[in-house]
Design a protein that fits this description.
Blueprint: H1 15-32, H2 34-49, H3 52-61, H4 63-74, H5 77-95, H6 98-115, H7 118-121, H8 127-133, H9 137-158
């Protein structure tokens, strides 16, 4: 009968063996991904030819100066105003009903098409014509919308 195993010895690889294993793994990766590596090298070559790699290297070397300049630019009053305004507009846009916004944009496009119609360009507007136009349901609808919009805007400005 054989003696029982009482001690497990883990095989320790030497540094040379570890390096050989890593090189072998790298060879397999290179062989399996030859096309992708060729594309990467082509891209890097193009970036180098146009000077982008040199610029990126210089930026990395001067990272503290670049960060200081960028931070200085971002903290200027006009930039902070733009950021605050964009945040305000974004907050407002989240409150708008998308269906209403779509309908309003379609109506604006229709109005712009009508306003740019060459047939209407030379037309004279008289007091009598305005009175007749108020009877037009489309004009009346737009006037009603405008009046209610102005009323709501005034209420909002009062608050």
């Amino acid at each position: 009968m054989a003696a029982p195993i009482s001690k497990i010895v883990k095989e320790q690889l030497s540094e040379e063996q570890i390096k050989d294993q890593k090189l072998e793994n790298l060879k397999h990766l290179l062989a399996e991904n030859e096309q992708a590596l060729n594309q990467v090298f082509t891209i890097v070559s193009e970036l180098n030819d146009m000077g982008a790699l040199e610029a990126a290297t210089k930026m990395v070397e001067a990272k503290e100066d670049v960060a200081q300049i960028a931070l200085g630019q971002l903290t200027r009053k006009p930039v902070t105003n733009i950021i605050n305004n964009m945040m305000g507009v974004a907050a407002m846009l989240t409150e708008l009903n998308p269906e209403t916004t779509g309908k309003l944009i379609a109506a604006l496009n229709s109005g712009l098409d009508e306003a740019n119609d060459p047939a209407n360009a030379e037309e004279k507007v008289t007091i009598m014509k305005l009175a007749k136009l108020l009877k037009d349901p489309d004009v009346n609808r737009a006037m009603n919308f405008g009046i209610h919009f102005l009323r709501g805007l005034g209420k909002g400005l009062k608050e």
